Amino acid sequence: EESLGLPSGFFEKFFQKPGTLLKLAFYPEDGQLDAVEGVAGEPQQRYGAHTDYDGFTILHRDPADSASGGGLEIQMWDSGEWTKVDAPPGTLTINIGDLLARWTNDRWRATRHRVAKAPAGGTSRLSIVYFTGPHPDTLVECLPTEKCLQGRKLYEPITARAHVESKLNAAVQEAQQESLDGPSKRARLEARGP
Fold it and tell me: For residue 58, what are the CA distances in angstroms to 41, 86, 92?
């Protein structure tokens, strides 16, 4: 709140009854991905490039991810390059989602990320992913602070529920189109980046 120029406790009323989802994400060992079609010249992924829909995503990751090279990667905004994200023991990883980016008028941007394929001989992994957002009826619009109002408002107001529903609907449409086009087209789009 302070970093956005908001009074302490500003977000409390929106998170009294938050919208949340807990997900256990299993990623197979190296050999189980070999049959998946990829893009020539691009590394195969366990989970393709994306941003999360809501506010913050909190991840508990295995520290072995850092050592194996087969874990979370984020895309750098300035260069578009992908970089590995370490998972020190006893820590959590927090990603910013699309809804929070919208709320801050892109002052805080959603973290585009993917899960890299484990190197040869890599093992399977399980991540605990906790998606958090405000109450679904919260009206999300540019925050009333100078830090967020620089320039023009980038987004129209929307409820948290309508935002997430629009993202889910778009994902369903993309999956339906992928079933017609085949997986290689999606992989090419993911490799292209933002």
Answer: 32, 15, 7
Written in H, E and C, the secondary structure of 106-174 is: CCCCCCCEEEECCCCCCCCEEEEEEEEECCCCCEECCCCCCCCCCCCCCCCCEEHHHHHHHHHHHHHHH
Cβ atoms < 10 Å from Cβ of 171: 12
d(CA 16, CA 11): 9
pTM of the model: 0.78
Burial 72-81 (b: 16+ CB within 10 A, else e): bbbbeeeeee
Phi-psi region of 182 (alpha: psi -120 to 50; beta: other; left: phi over 0): left
What mean pLDDT, rounded, does the chain reach?
Answer: 82
Distance CA 24, CA 123 (A): 17
Long-range contact list for 158-166, CB < 8 A, 24+ apart?
158/102, 160/19, 160/54, 160/99, 160/133, 160/134, 160/135, 160/136, 161/19, 161/136, 161/137, 163/53, 163/98, 163/99, 163/102, 164/19, 164/53, 164/54, 164/99, 164/133, 164/136
92-121 mean pLDDT: 88
User: What is the pLDDT confidence band of residue 88, given thresholds at 50, 70 and 90?
Assistant: confident
